[in-house]
Amino acid sequence: MCGIVGWVAYDRNLVHEQSALRAMTATAALRGPDAEGLWLDQHCGFGHRRLAVIDLAGGVQPMLAEEDRQPTVALTYSGEVYNYRELRAELRALGHDFRTDSDTEVVLHAYLEWGEDFAERLNGMYAFGVWDGRQQRLLLVRDRMGVKPLCFHPTPDGVLFASEPKSILAHPDVSAEVDFDGLRELLALVKTPGHGVYRGVREVRPGHVVVVDRDGTRTRRYWGLSARPHTDDLDTTVHTVRDLLEDIIRRQLIADVPLCTLLSGGLDSSAVTALAALGLREQGLGSVRSFAVDFVGQTEHFHPDAMRPEPDTPYAHEVAKHVGSQHADIVLNSGDLTDSLYRTEVMVANDIPTSLGDLYTSLFLLFRAVREHSTVALSGESADEVFGGYRWFHDPTAVNADGFPWLTALPDRPGSAQGLFAPELERALDLDGYRDAAYRQALAEVDHLPDESPAEHRMREISYLHLTRFLQILLDRKDRMSMAHGLEVRVPYCDHRLVEYVYNTPWSMKAFDGREKSVLRAAVADLLPESVLRRRKSPYPSTQDPVYEQTLRQSLIEVVDDPQAPIADLINPPRIRETLAAPLEESGFGMSRRSVELLLGLNLWLRRYPVRLALT
């Protein structure tokens, strides 16, 4: 896992632009704390910050292929390719020689052998740039599910690209501006594929290749979710899911650095931890380490709500004991979560503000603690999107609504519905119209089978919306918060083989026992305590300490009372004061808190980040 940057310019000689490339690369230092590399040619420059995970000595980047001692192809690469050993054996049989044991060199030789089609052979999470000096052409490639980020900024004579927007914004010719469309994307909670927040900055879509040459930029999809008949019966489906999970975890345990799991005590992370423990024992590598986040007093004074019926910690402890993991709780307090330094670091790591404040800050602090012991962590992220775990998958009102299900399930979401922004700004933004257009675009992408029943037809759409939109918000959060500490988080449930198989499993089978994630539950039933197998879905935790929300509200009062506050011209002070006068919410997922988080985040972003709103 690393941070990558690059610059292609056909009308200038980049050999003389080392200072600009170095400035861009420096912004990725936290993503890659182990080494820095720069490479410049006449029309292309690559930067790389390395987090060494496989072949610590040999996987130095940018990596070059040479002919007659002259570089022909250069690679700057972030991520992991989990089938690199099989690919290396295949490439050796085709005559390729390897100098290292790294997956980076395998990716480079795969391009040399198979050209632009090589991405279809990769299994993993990755984002990289390939410069082919023979054709004066750049390829930008992103993994199928979008686990690793990759953004780019077309220029008059080429392109800039990087793991994160901050690296592009560090280029002297780029200004950090956000227009109406960028602000809409920031506030809408829909994550439009390919859309960036900063003006001119776009994202490489998951499963796509962007090709840049002297004729311009073109994009090609090499993978996407497609509808296929599912012919397996229920028992075969359950066993196939189990076999896939065992193979996926076995591959993702490969690392030359300490490894752990993130264990919440829910079904998803518990299954990953149990399978990891099993895989390590089979290899004679001892027990697995596991970590969980908790808050001071949360277990003792927990208040159940519609989103979270019970605390995580007792279940995490039970699973740890059951599988024999070396477990540790990372316990946070409200002082940690409201600390201005941490909140600023979170915003800088994320590049944009969010309404999910403590859900980011607590993850940031969890990963900081985990990084003291491990460099790689396996996560249960994305199982809910793959197997249908969210409560609104099973809510007929949300399923049948004419919009994104998660927005229907949270009708009082932060934004225009609550009137927190100035009326003229809300009218100009028209967030409801933006969300509706995004929803129509997503539905138009869905591939269907001709004989699907109306119920199966709709549930395929629901699955597609979550896998291509909602999941991207969560993957971005996990990547930014983990890589801010140089921690690589692997996401086994995002293996494209599993995603394809389960996506095409009929909904009637996915929910065969009337519960969420029925197939996953059955597939790992022999590995987990009965209490975890019976447990209802609980999302990532949010602190219930009233001191936390009181501190947030007081901070927002100070902002509203300050006529010089960066968001002063954007907000509706009377409506905000009305919100702040309401009683505190017991739920950590209440919309008043999320609205306060959003406004404080916007104010911090405009005050501490080099950003200008271009709304005229």
Automatic annotation (TrEMBL):
Q: Please state what class of enzyme this protein is.
A: ligase
The reaction(s) catalysed by this protein are: L-aspartate + L-glutamine + ATP + H2O = L-asparagine + L-glutamate + AMP + diphosphate + H(+)
Pathway assigned to this chain's UniProt record: Amino-acid biosynthesis; L-asparagine biosynthesis; L-asparagine from L-aspartate (L-Gln route): step 1/1
In terms of CDD domains, this protein maps to: Asn_synthase_B_C (cd01991), AsnB (cd00712)
Q: What is its EC number?
A: 6.3.5.4
Question: Where are the coiled-coil regions?
Answer: none
Please provide the record's keywords in A-Z order.
Amino-acid biosynthesis, Asparagine biosynthesis, ATP-binding, Glutamine amidotransferase, Nucleotide-binding
Stretches assigned to the Glutamine amidotransferase type-2 domain: 2-215
Q: Which InterPro entries match?
A: Asn_synth_AEB, Asn_synthase, ASN_synthetase/amidase, AsnB_N, GATase_2_dom, Ntn_hydrolases_N, Rossmann-like_a/b/a_fold
Q: Which family does it belong to?
A: Belongs to the asparagine synthetase family.
Q: What is this protein called?
A: asparagine synthase (glutamine-hydrolyzing)
